[in-house]
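Structure in, sequence out. Go:
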């Protein structure tokens, strides 16, 4: 019976003159930028292409990253949906 009483008291305290404040944290995946860095080129937009030719000759040239089209960023962050922040908690503040 004591537990039920405490629960009712808690509900009363929460509902009376209180506002729910969402708590946001910087998105750990995109560091708050809202988009993710291209994993293919590491954000530089360029990749090294190794080419081998007949006769054993090899060259290494820098080319535009085909995955992000040279931008270095890749789509909006799926973790935060592009906002750069994620909701971690809701604080109930009494006024
Ligand atoms: Zn994010
Ligand atoms: Zn890329």
């Amino acid at each position: 019976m004591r537990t039920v009483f405490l629960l009712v008291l808690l509900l009363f305290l929460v509902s009376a003159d209180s506002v729910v404040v969402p708590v946001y944290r910087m998105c750990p995946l995109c560091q708050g930028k809202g988009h993710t860095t291209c994993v293919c080129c590491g954000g530089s937009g360029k990749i090294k292409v190794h080419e081998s030719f007949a006769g054993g000759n090899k060259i290494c040239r820098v080319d535009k990253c085909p995955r992000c089209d040279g931008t270095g960023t890749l789509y909006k962050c799926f973790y935060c949906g592009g906002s750069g922040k994620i909701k971690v908690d809701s604080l109930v503040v009494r006024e």
